[in-house]
TrEMBL record:
Belongs to the ATP-dependent AMP-binding enzyme family. Coiled coil: none annotated. GO terms for molecular function: adenylyltransferase activity. This is AMP-dependent ligase C-terminal domain-containing protein. It comes from Mycobacterium shottsii. The keyword Lipid metabolism applies. Keywords: Fatty acid metabolism, Lipid metabolism. GO terms for cellular component: plasma membrane. Residues 42-135 form the AMP-dependent ligase C-terminal domain. InterPro entries: AMP-bd_C_sf, AMP-dep_Lig_C, ANL_N_sf. One of its GO terms (biological process) is fatty acid biosynthetic process. The keyword Lipid metabolism applies.
Amino acid sequence: MDGEVAAVDPDGWLFTGDLGYLTEGGEIVVCGRRKNVIIVAGRNIFPADIERLAASVHGIRRGGVVAFGVTLADRREEIRIVAETVADPSIEDGRELRRQIAQNVRGATGLSPTVLLVGKGNVPKTASGKIRHVMARELFGEVSPA
């Protein structure tokens, strides 16, 4: 697109890419970014909701979880979760962590995610500590769990 684009629409709304809603009290609640929404079977899933479910599992680092959508070879969409572990788990403990995360997500959404476990510092973040969803999808979108 060439030239300048208006940042505000005719009704005074600012285009930010953020998604949210107004409460009955007139407060704005931000749910996430439009570009990060996961769409599976026609449903919009907010990554933050999935990330909270995964981070609630004992052994997973809070703030070290990213969720995003992946298009599979058969054109189906799935939820992919990359979670940093608190410690380096044994193979058996890793399986149990993945099972617990998947169970939490399935219980809340009815969807079965693919879960990848990584060590501390492997979930990409900005300098201010925010999760970089697009970069995570680029790094881990093609990776399969062991």
